[in-house]
Design brief:
- The complex is a heterodimer of chains A (156) and B (381).
- With 156 residues, chain A is mainly alpha-helical.
- Chain A is built from seven helices and no strands.
- In chain A, helix 3 runs antiparallel to helix 5, helix 5 packs across helix 7 and helix 6 crosses helix 7.
- Chain A is elongated and about 70 Å long.
- Chain B has 381 residues and is of the alpha/beta class.
- Chain B has two domains: 185 residues, FAD/NAD(P)-binding domain; 137 residues, FAD/NAD(P)-binding domain, CATH 3.50.50.
- Chain B is built from ten helices and 21 strands.
- Chain B has a five-stranded parallel sheet. In chain B, strands 13-12-11-17 form a four-stranded parallel sheet, covered by helices on one side. A three-stranded antiparallel sheet of chain B has the order 6-7-8.
- In chain B, helix 1 packs parallel to helix 9.
- Chain B is globular, with a radius of gyration of 21 Å.
- The chains are: A mainly alpha (156), B alpha/beta (381).
- At the A-B interface, helix 1 and helix 2 of A face helix 2, strand 5, helix 5, helix 9 and strand 21 of B.
């Protein structure tokens, strides 16, 4: 009796089954919890960006743009509407997008709009990235200590 | 005075424990109640499972490396130095520069290293893929390969117990891709009376190798290598001529254990199999390759142990509690069965593994994990 070749759906099912088994065997509940935490903190960071307090802060920065650092000046040259004043305007516009002045649309809509603007305007994205880094550094006050060592690579 | 957690070793186990605890206790760290210090000999972390892919030109070394500092959760203090001795009476880790780190709780994640000098002639005549330099040298040898006889030898104990099988099967398919399989002879040796220490793996691999025309030489304990005549001698009296000798050298624990009178035979720390305490020391824990536990020395083991240990350390540091989470011997190992398919082993103290049928999907899962391992290290997942 001839041996029957496995059908295409059978092959796919076997591949999917093997993948599911490997994932189940390798993942721990704590990993899933941590992933949930990360998703939550990303959303929290974006929420923070779109809060009225931040919009107010950015508006203040916008008014004080003439005295901001040369670094921001360089960033401002990237993307459309080059110039310090233009950059501050664009940041405020991005953060405001849907968040405060356009009522209260569902969170995914607000996030999508902000991410869309950040993708289109690298200067805005870079500045907001720095800003988030600054916020993070506020609750991470302990700097790493560096002690030079010239020992060889014992572990290869 | 904050409670001081000191972790010695910035490999997989050390980094994961540090990050898991730091993320759980970030408020306590911020308030100055807990201090976490990671003491690491290297400033660059290397993803060691990647060496196997470097050998076959499937990954570049740069893809395996990240600065340790970039992998640390906020609040962890990194000290780049070598620990030379633990003074358990004073609760201090002594450093090579003469300074000392005080601890309330200590974690020894000092890993394992190769014992290349156990076999005379091996350094001169052999290749290995358990260090980056070794993997690059073997990659260069393979780039020049046009056929001949490859002999693979295995010393015990060694980390990643299935890596010798993976190398052999990847090499076999690689020679077919390079159209030199008919000019290549492959001999896989193993020190026991079967092809692998895990019975299920031995039972699975014997017919696999037979189908691929890979010879198996059992009871082969490499004793010496005559690198001029290109012959590998075994304790059992078997001489194997070779064109390329690939060896998995026996591993040993870090010398810190011996210098501190904490380790036993092989420099492994005598370890409680469930709470991972170094026996006889309530304030010292260990994990990963450094333990003497009867389980595989593998990254997944370090990971699973780190989760249990971090849970316990949180209780110990914040409440002075006794450890309650227990490690059950869980291990997970991918097995690349060539260049396109893979399977895996999953087992613990009570449940031996089986070997599922290899698939493309598991191979690509492994490839994916190779690239997202960093998220795991950083306690992002």
């Amino acid at each position: 009796m001839a041996t029957q070749e496995p059908s295409i759906p059978d092959v796919f099912r076997d591949e999917a089954d093997s993948l599911a088994s490997a994932v189940l065997a390798s993942v721990t509940p704590r990993m899933v919890n941590r992933l949930g935490g990360v998703a939550e903190s990303t959303i929290a960071a974006l929420d923070l960006l779109t809060s009225p307090e931040i919009v107010n802060l950015l508006s203040t920065l916008q008014r004080a743009s003439a005295v901001l650092t040369p670094l921001l000046g360089q960033i401002a040259e990237i993307g459309p509407g080059a110039g310090m004043e233009g950059l501050a305007d664009r940041i405020v516009r991005a953060v405001k997008a849907g968040a405060v002045e356009v009522g209260v649309p569902p969170r995914p809509v607000r996030m999508r709009e902000l991410l869309r603007i950040m993708r289109q305007d690298p200067a805005v994205a870079i500045t907001l990235h720095f800003f988030l880094g600054f916020v993070r550094s506020m609750w991470s006050p302990i700097a790493g200590e560096h002690v030079p060592n010239t020992e060889g690579d014992r572990h290869g | 005075m904050p409670k001081r957690l000191v972790i010695v070793g910035a490999g997989t186990g050390g980094l994961m424990v540090a990050n898991f605890v730091a993320r759980d206790l970030h408020s306590e760290i911020e308030r100055g109640e807990i201090g976490i210090t990671l003491l690491g000999e290297q400033e660059t972390y290397i993803y060691q499972p990647g060496y196997l892919y470097v050998v076959f030109d499937l990954m570049r070394p740069a893809q395996l490396m990240r600065p340790v500092r970039e992998l640390l959760a906020p609040g962890i203090r990194f000290v780049h130095d070598r620990a030379t001795r633990i003074d358990t009476g004073k609760r201090q880790v002594l450093r090579s520069d003469g300074d000392a780190l005080d601890y309330d709780v200590l974690v020894l994640a000092t890993g394992s290293g190769l014992n290349l000098d156990e076999v005379p002639g091996l350094r001169e005549g052999g290749h290995w893929f358990y260090t980056l330099a070794g993997a690059l040298r073997l990659r260069d040898a393979l780039r020049r390969w046009h056929g001949g006889k490859l002999v693979l030898t295995v010393g015990v104990p060694h980390k990643c117990p299935v890596a010798p099988l993976e190398f052999t099967m990847m090499f076999e398919q690689w020679t077919r891709q390079r159209k030199v399989r008919d000019k290549t002879e492959i001999v896989y040796t193993y020190p026991l009376g079967r092809a692998h220490s895990i019975q299920a793996v031995a039972d699975w691999v014997a017919p696999e190798f037979e189908a691929r025309n890979i010879a198996i030489e059992t009871f082969y304990n490499l004793e010496s290598v005559d690198h001029e005549k290109r012959v590998a001698h075994s304790l059992e009296g078997t001489d194997l001529p070779y064109d390329l000798l690939v060896s998995v050298p026996a591993h040993q624990g870090d010398e810190l254990g011996a210098a501190s009178h904490l380790s036993g035979a092989g420099n492994w720390y005598p370890t409680d199999r469930h709470n991972l305490r170094v026996q006889g020391h309530d304030d010292i824990f260990t994990l990963g390759d450094a333990t003497d536990l009867p389980i595989s020395k593998a990254g997944s083991v370090a990971h699973f142990e780190a989760e249990v240990l971090a849970d316990n350390l949180v209780g110990v540091l914040t409440e002075g509690a006794q450890p309650t989470s227990q490690y059950n011997g869980r291990a997970f190992c991918f097995i690349e069965t060539g260049l396109e398919r893979a399977t895996f082993l999953s087992f613990d103290y009570e449940h031996p593994p089986t070997v599922p049928e290899p698939t493309n999907a598991v191979h690509w899962f492994k490839q994916t994990y190779n690239r997202i391992h960093w998220a795991n290290l950083k306690a992002v997942m």
